[in-house]
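Sample intake sheet
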Amino acid sequence: MADFDTRQYKLARVRQFDGTPLTRTQYNLVIGGMLVFGTLINVAEATLLRNSILQIPALAVFLIYLIGSFGGMALVYRNRSVGAGIAGFTVLAASMGLLLTYFVSFYDTGSIALAFICTACTTGIMMALATLAPQVFLRMGRVLGISLLVSIFASLVVAFLAPALWTAFDWLMVLLFCGYIGFDWARAQRYPSNAVNAVQCAADIYVDIVNLFIRILDIIGISRN
């Protein structure tokens, strides 16, 4: 399955524009609030809208996902307005939620719940580690970027030529996106504390978490079968 990461690798940079200043606590609360917001959108799609979404042709869902996720990220990053950033984040989360709804439909409720808990705990641990040792994760940036690009091609090779290695590949991707969560969290703490930066950083971390979730769910699903 193709990775859900809609980003090409971006070198860490300090955003030059300002915005309404926040305390560091408020800044991190905005990031956390946006992550919860994105999760609620996905849960609503996978539960309340599941039957309607599954009736849409898979190709159409994939096209909507591509357009919406790239468009959402572009809106998040190309505007200095908080409102535009939140709108872009909403489009991003809703688009990824469509594909997520299709993906989770192949797994039982117990596996989904366990994967959700594992993802939440892992995310918290990686953020804590990145807070304690930010420089360690910031040095990983270039390696993570190259690894992500390599993984796109590797996933095709494994899927078609060595499907027996898929679980091992999933574990490698779990490690990759754990690194990305730590990297993006450490990088977020370098930026000025304002709402625009918080929304943009939340979008990066949200994409990392979704990727981590689908890999963990795939591992759990395979092990249970």
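Comment: The chain has a mean pLDDT of 89. The two ends are 18 Å apart (CA to CA).
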